[in-house]
Amino acid sequence: MDALMKRRSDLRLLLMQIRTEAKVCDEEHRSFASYSGLAPEQIDILNVFQTPTFSPGAAAGYDALLVGGASEANVLEPARYPFVHQCEKLLRHVVTTSLPTFASCFGFQLAVLALGGRIEHREEGFEMGTLAIRLAEAAREDPLLHDTPDGFAAVSVHRQYAAQVPSGCERLAFTEQCVHALRVSGKPFWAFQFHPEVDRATLVERLTHYRDHYTEDAGHLEQVLTTAQETPESNGLMRKFVDRILLS
């Protein structure tokens, strides 16, 4: 092995977190670490609710940037959540510097806006639960998705969505409703509308916790939870990101 090649234990990542509740913050941090194959101590946190103003170069010195989801914020309300524009600046910076980036859900929406795309809102009939994700043509040559089966299961809960990818990006995966994965062309930058860091057990935990935010009533919640599936292909993407991009 090349003497200059990093070992897994050498990696240090930054997680940009957009959450307020300590229990969910901790669960998200540990989920990212677990599915990356890293120790939680290898992933530092920039919580934008706690630190709404930060430099576009905040991820400098790290091996990669991770961006998580959010249930307490809306990318379409930057006046209410002023850190949205700060996050966009950071994402444009990591694209420019080619820092490897892996974004999930809210992070996907931030990436679309940062790259000049459009995010739309759906108040009713939005995706929630375990979905079948279709692969686009570009996925055949993608380092992370080329060996992922078409129609793989993934967890997704979101009211905001993108119907198209921004200019300069490749559409990698989708559902009938929206785009679910993109890559910035020629850059180590991936964003997923679904949650690669969330498995069935975590979906049940999160939806139960946020039931008033996402579900109409107890019957609706029960319907979503009883149809939840395991999502091994989705959960494996973070390990592929570490192995194939950061350690290759």
UniProtKB/TrEMBL annotation:
Glutamine amidotransferase domain sequence ranges: 80-199
GO cellular component: cytosol
Entry keyword annotation includes Ribonucleoprotein: no
GO MF entry, a single one: transaminase activity
Domain of life: Bacteria
Annotated organism of origin: Marinobacterium aestuarii
Record key words, sorted: Aminotransferase, Transferase
Record has Transferase as a keyword: yes
Protein name: Aminotransferase
Pfam families: GATase
